[in-house]
Amino acid sequence: MLISHATVGRLEIYGIADARPAPVDPTRSYPEVPRENWAPHRRWLTDEGQFQPDLGCFVVRSPDGVVLIDAGIGPGPVPYLGDARGTLRDSIGELGLAFDDVTAVIFTHLHFDHVGWASIPDAKGVMRPSFPRARYFVGATEWMFWDRGPTNVMAHHVDAFARIVRPVEEAGLLTVVPDGTSPVEGFVYRCLPGNTPGHQGVLATSGGHRCLFCADICHCPVQVEEPSWSHRSDADPATGKATRQSVFAEFADTGTLLAFGHFPRSADLGHVTRDGAGWAWRPLGTGN
Description:
Elements: E1 3-8, E2 11-19, H1 26-29, E3 55-62, E4 65-69, H2 88-94, E5 102-106, E6 119-121, E7 127-129, E8 135-139, H3 140-147, H4 155-170, E9 174-177, E10 187-191, E11 200-206, E12 209-213, H5 222-225, H6 237-251, E13 257-259, E14 269-275, E15 278-283
Parallel strand pairs: 4-5, 5-8, 8-9, 12-13
Antiparallel strand pairs: 1-2, 2-3, 3-4, 6-7, 10-11, 11-12, 13-14, 14-15
């Protein structure tokens, strides 16, 4: 199952797994968590006890246009992911859409697996924006972090920014907006730092209903139940832990849909509920 779906007011939300990389030992992704601590949470691992996240993004169809929340890994091959190739173009086609139909691309942050389809090579190998009718949006803090050339991040992220994001800026299609503001009618940035300094979620509202696109505050549903667990990609783990607690406290039991790009498509859309002193993840349609 590579596409999930939910309706929020007049919004049709589709979760797309652009790629699903090879599974790894969970201690590689969560190095501070002993393997035995996963025993109560085996349902979030493969049958072999491995961790396998989706590398996903979201397509939102509204009466005003088609909004893409993040942009996957790109066409590939991506060496860092074992030469994985993204399938976003095919998935959008399954929805009866094409890249030309996208009217806005909203970046939650600029890690390589969230910008991959932002631009692609033309027939001469020159990188061009993939969504020519769209405006691309990014928050100011996130932009400034990458624009100044950070030296404390992994090389594949820096390369993706220079190779994939810069061409969008040079084409004049990128808009940098103040953190916490609205890039598109009905969509508002929410500051959710930790994974990157300027990491933001996106809160979409329609007809009194809401969906929070949480981006990388969690990489696995286990982090709803264990919010103190940090993924190795978090730039500031302590801030990430505080962000998770804040989000769950605000949105638990409110009916607000939450969307997570790295959860499996069978569990990427759902609700957080209170569970004693903690939280539980309730994916749509599972009844659990």
